[in-house]
Each structure stands twice: as C-alpha cells, then as structure tokens.
Amino acid sequence: MCRFIESICCQDGNIPLLDLHQDRVDRTFRSYFAGRKALSLRDMLKDLPGDGKFKCRVSYGAKQGSVEYEPYQTPRVHSLKAIADDQILYNYKFEDRSRLSGLFRQRGGGGRYFNCAKKTNYGLLFCQCCFL
Fold first, then answer.
1. Higher model confidence: residue 132 or residue 42?
2. Which CATH fold would you assign to the domain 4-71?
3. Contact criterion met (CB below 8 Å) for 11 and 52
C-alpha cells in the first residue's frame, strides 16, 4: 500500500500554510484511498513545538499517520543545478523517494535539492533542483 508525506513548516507554535497541506492530503485520499475519510492534519498536529522554527514531517497511509518534529536548519546554498526528468510524476508526495534520490545523485558533488510544482493552463509544471 502507498504511503505519503507532508513536510510542514511550524513556527512559534503556528502552521501558516496548514490549509494548503490539508488540501493535498484530501486530494491524495480521493485518488488513492477512495471512500475513506482523509486524515485531519489539524487533529494530528495538536502538540506543536513552541518557540522557534521546526520541520514537521507527517507520514501517512489509508488508516494511520505519524508525526515527527526536528529543528529547522536553513541550508547553505552555494550554487544551483536544475536536473531534468520528463518521466517523473509528482502530483503526490510519496514516502518512497527513490526516484527523487536518483535525480539527487545526478547533481555531482555535495548539496541539497528542492522541488516545486505549479499548476498551469497546460497541467502541472514540476521542477527539481539541487543545491550544491
């Protein structure tokens, strides 16, 4: 069974983009777990860390989810490299990141990557970049 993740910014006990994350969870449930009630992020994230900025990682499947928090560390970016993959589908945030890890290995040298998606008139535009 597929599992999915949400990486959520939590700052000073608040989650400013919670509604957008919940929208993605709802879409995921409609597509992969039809007929099941979507997990409520608001219910899952009741015990938020207080002061400071944290990365909240929610991992979930059809029946259950788990939550982990870690202090957010701003990555140091020295250069940026775009990696093209015309075959990857990234409409949902799968917990299995092996395809993204393969792209990450193509970057050469050390670094971090980010991904973004933007809905356009032509569909979903996906971008995968590496911080070197």
1. 42
2. D-amino Acid Aminotransferase; Chain A, domain 1 (3.30.470)
3. yes
